[in-house]
Amino acid sequence: MLNDTEGGRPHLQAFRAGLEDGLAGHLRDVPEDIGGRVTPLPEDSRTLSPMFSSGLIERPVSWVALAGFMGTGKSRIGWELSRALALHFVDTDKLITRVVGKSIPEVFAQEGEGYFRACEHEVVGRVTRLEHAVISLGGGTFIQEENRRCLLERGPVVVLWATPETIYQRTKHSDRPLLRTEDPLERIRTLMDERAPVYQQGTIHVHSDGRPSEEIVEEIIDRLWSWADAQHAWALDHAALDHAAPDHTPGGESRASD
Ligand SMILES: Nc1ncnc2c1ncn2[C@@H]1O[C@H](COP(=O)(O)OP(=O)(O)O)[C@@H](O)[C@H]1O
Ligand SMILES: O=C(O)C1=C[C@@H](OP(=O)(O)O)[C@@H](O)[C@H](O)C1
Ligand SMILES: [Mg+2]
């Protein structure tokens, strides 16, 4: 559990105050925010409402989060998934960067990791209240117990996986503060061993090694359909059970006949 002393109370209040505007700006500017790697949808479809309210889009879920280790592809796949499902996109690291006005390495160096984790926690509280969104988390977000509980209560969490070697190749030219060590591959291995049991608590697990992003997105969507169908079947079973035995409550009919 993060406390305000560790997170820095005055800073955190400023972060909370800036979060709403930051989120609005991030939702609006997402293609620019993620570096313009991909072509944005046409202007009218970015607002979502015309397609969505006309019922033309069939999708397995209207909210999903992506978790997993650094370099497994959460930011890139999340963006592509959001385009495929015509959902809004939030990258929690990019949102924090925008609200704080500093890059992630600057936040770590100048404000400390505790402050960054406190910001992440605030962001989780906000993005779990969004509708129609794909959320790409940072690699450590799902590791915090309170974040994990909140995310899993909200909807499915897809965990992306890759081997330490792939992660190393994908991150070696980037500036991830936790991998700034003499032997980043060894650091990846150690941190992965520590975190893997926690990532296992996600809803759906997808490997990303040696696969093009389109294939990964396709698998995620297929698996989300299976998950949604199973949820639906479960809900129907429970409704049928409730119908067959309408009153299990203490003091109700079934109890009265005991
Ligand atoms: N399936 C993939 N194949 C090849 N490169 C990928 C794949 N997924 C992501 N990448 C690349 O790996 C790097 C890290 O991906 P990113 O989405 O930032 O990961 P994360 O958000 O999980 O840290 C980026 O350069 C990204 O373009
Ligand atoms: O694993 C982690 O603790 C972190 C992962 C990073 O995000 P990516 O997983 O998108 O690289 C970023 O949030 C920060 O550097 C800390
Ligand atoms: Mg990322």
Detailed description of the structure:
The chain has a single domain, classed as Rossmann fold (3-Layer(aba) Sandwich), CATH 3.40.50.300. Helix content is 59%, strand content 9%. The protein is built from 13 helices and 5 strands. The chain has helices at residues 4-7, 9-33, 43-46, 49-53, 74-85, 92-100, 104-111, 113-127, 145-154, 164-171, 184-199, 213-244, 253-256, and strands at residues 63-68, 88-91, 133-136, 157-161, 204-207. It starts with a helix and ends with a helix. The structure holds adenosine-5'-diphosphate (ADP), shikimate-3-phosphate (S3P) and magnesium ion. Shikimate-3-phosphate (S3P) binds at residues 70, 74-75, 93, 104, 138-140, 176-178. Residues 70, 74-75, 93, 104, 138-140, 176-178 line the site of shikimate-3-phosphate.
* Overall morphology: globular
Can you write the helix and strand succession as a string?
HHHHEHEHHHEHEHHEHH
CATH topology: the name is Rossmann fold
Known CATH architecture: 3-Layer(aba) Sandwich
Mean pLDDT: 87
Give start-end ranges of low-pLDDT stretches.
Answer: 1-5, 38-51, 251-258
Classified in CATH, the superfamily is: P-loop containing nucleotide triphosphate hydrolases
| H/I helix tally | 13
Structural class based on helices, strands and sheet pairing: alpha/beta
Distance between the termini: 46 Å
Please describe the biggest sheet, giving its number of strands, its sense, and whether it closes into a barrel.
5 strands, parallel
Bound molecules: adenosine-5'-diphosphate, shikimate-3-phosphate, magnesium ion
